[in-house]
Design brief:
It is a single chain. By secondary structure, this protein is of the alpha+beta class. Helices cover 33% and strands 9% of the residues. The strands form 3 sheets. A 3-stranded antiparallel β-sheet has the order 3-5-6. A two-stranded antiparallel sheet has the order 1-2. The longest helix has 20 residues. The protein starts with a strand and ends in a 16-residue tail after the last helix.
Length: 234
Amino acid sequence: GNRVTRQRGELYMVFPYMDHDLAGLIENKNVEFTEPQIKCYMKQLFEGTLYLHSNNIMHRDIKCANILVNNQGQLQIGDFGLARSFDPDDKNKEYTNMVVTRWYRPPELLLGETRYTCAIDMWGLGCIFGEILQRVPILRGESEIDQLEKIWDLCGTPTEETWPGYRNLPGCQDMKFEPQKFNCISERFKNFNPLAVDLLKKLLTLDPKKRITAKEALTHDYFWTPPQPALPEK
């Protein structure tokens, strides 16, 4: 387990050794991900994220490079340099929106939202899920504007019906984008388990208020229909 000690005014934090990060495993073409293994990984990620959110912590930098994996298939969420506590009862608390690595950054942050919630972490988990399935990052924007365009191309552009109030975000004031009404996730991931695709769509929901939570994700049918999630040591 983790250990924290203080000595001579210095703080030492000791963590278990982890053999890999998820980004490296995904890039390694010699590593095969079976569906039970993918379910095992995602289940652990949702459990870890649920623990954080239940303790009022936003990670704010969820990405494959920050997911550590040992040779027993156990995952740990790492790099808490941008993590922040939050008060779930304070809806008006403002935070910096200059968080989350661009490819994993949700649309509300790209549009300048400062009163965001832990739903930003769930978007990052959706990006990770898609990356595990396709073995490449799924939203590789070259700039913040390009990142938004990549999101619109995949998820469709927002409307007042799909994302009420989005026009009030600072980034929408001077921005015009071509309407793209269709969510293309099902088409882009047509070769994968339909339940996996359904979970992915719920994670990559534009409106953060409608985005699935970690607790809800753990009850999704994807984890409760064969094949069952592998055990980490398998």
